[in-house]
Amino acid sequence: MKFMKIGTKPDTFYAEEATRTVISDIPSDLTIRINNVCFLLHKIPLVPKCGLLQRLCSDADDSDIVTIDLHDVPGVEDAFELCAKFCYGITINLGAHNFVPAFCAAKFLRMTESIEKGNFVLKLEAFFNSCILEGWKDSIVALQTTIKLPEWSENLGIIRRCIDSIVEKILTPTSKVSWSYTYTRPGYIKKQHQSVPKDWWTEDVSDLDIDLFRCIITAVRSTYIPPPQLIGEALHVYACRWLPDTTKSRPLHSSGSQTEESREKSRRILESIVSMIPSDRGSVSIGFLLKLLSIANYLGASPVTKTELIRKAGLQFEEATLNDMLFPSQLPTDQHFYDIDLVAAVLESYLVLWRRQSPLPTENSHMVRSIRKIGKLIDSYLQVVARDVNMPISKLVSLAEALPDVAREDHDGLYKAINIYLKEHPDVSKADKKRMCRMLDCQKLSPEVRAHAVKNERLPLRTVVQVLFFDQESGSRSTTHKPESITRARQAPIEAEAKEECDKKLQHEVTKSSSRVTETSEREIQKRMEAKMVRGDSEKGKERKGETNSTAKMMEPKQVFQRRSSR
């Protein structure tokens, strides 16, 4: 930061309540009133340097005490005091933090070269051109101070020239960046002769007001030089700087006026950031988009903003990780912790695009790989939110059922989520248990998971029996696919042994679960077992009968021939 010192006399200004004056043996003959502050000064030396005061005092005699109201002076009393001290020759220090109000006030008072040589405006312009615009942080600080005097700063060209200076430095190749900048990213250690990071400018620019920040980003994007990812990084830094963090815990909702004012400011920032996100896919990460969506829910952003974030997140949902999706719910009416509705909305947006792009996906297509990646991600998410003791079963089931069948190559992950939920919610009704387990496809469970399900006392008996019957049927299918070289005499003991083991296993599970079911359910299960066994025996009987008939038919011609020979 650079400063300019003007004047050599000591500061003789002093303030007493709402009055400011200068220590002097000469009585005051000029009173300047600015709002509630009264300045007791002297016509000499102020009038000779200020064109405005010359005009206002033109009708007064030199001996008259003149009172002037200057309530509309830019920068109000502090800026006017700087101009007055310059007129008295008192030492003042100028920098980027006070240049704008001093320059606007000097212009207002018409302290130009036409009034007196070497006047205040000329010195301020020289300082602005040679120091502020040449510096990186000076330009940003000066630009930020213009928010208090937007019209004056715009009319005097301060805003435009500061923006041009900042954008020019942003577009400078990193090898030529020689000025000081702020860069405090985690894991980054600035070393001597280390190359300058491409996003070196993002933190300093994030200090600006959102409207000025938008001007910078718009000007930088118009050059088409920085890649979209760099613009996205600048937006990410700005959001982290100004928007509330909703990833840790549920924010406290307050109805205070100050809080509401702050929320309104945050909403405006959020909506501006969303509107500036480049349309290029990957310009911002999916994690950042989901974070913005969570913040939008907390701040009560407009439906247009939420819809746009959901659409953009749906386009990149395939890139998401589990940690990207773990946000607390922002609705005060929700008892559960995790914002499962946010994930459901983004998943729905993704599925709309997926169905539109791939109406009939093939097994090895990119769209199938994509949807299966999403399927694993959602199942992992379900396993986490299932631990939430206040998570409604309806929301869990709704999210699980939103995926199409092709999304799950196996149901192991879904089974784990269901098991976790039943473990954390022991009071779940039988109807809800059946509703959850109805989503399971026993044929898509791995042998290890089926073995666990058979012993799982939390599952409904119907689900356990389905797993057992599938085990039996799969065992039968594997037996029928054995090579034909194995004789039926060798197959019979194997089938009998498998059948005996399956019957014992099934009978063991039915006995083990008898405390959980009624007697009617047991009789139904036994009837189904007996019917299945009878069907199996009848089928084997038909096979043996078929073999006997075929043997008889083969023997019949031979017997007829023998009878004919005996005749």
UniProtKB/TrEMBL annotation:
Protein's organism: Gossypium tomentosum
Keyword Transport found: no
BP GO terms, sorted: protein ubiquitination
Name of the protein described by the UniProt record: NPH3 domain-containing protein
Regions annotated as coiled coil: none
Composition-biased stretches (Basic and acidic residues): 496-511, 519-547
Record-annotated NPH3 domain positions: 199-474
Pfam families per the UniProt record, alphabetical: NPH3
SUPFAM superfamilies given in the database record: POZ domain (SSF54695)
Family: Belongs to the NPH3 family.
Biochemical pathway: Protein modification; protein ubiquitination
Higher taxonomy: Eukaryota, Viridiplantae, Streptophyta, Embryophyta, Tracheophyta
UniProt keyword rRNA processing present: no
UniProt-annotated stretches for the region Disordered: 473-567
Key words, A-Z: Ubl conjugation pathway
InterPro entries associated with the record: NPH3/RPT2-like, NPH3_dom, SKP1/BTB/POZ_sf
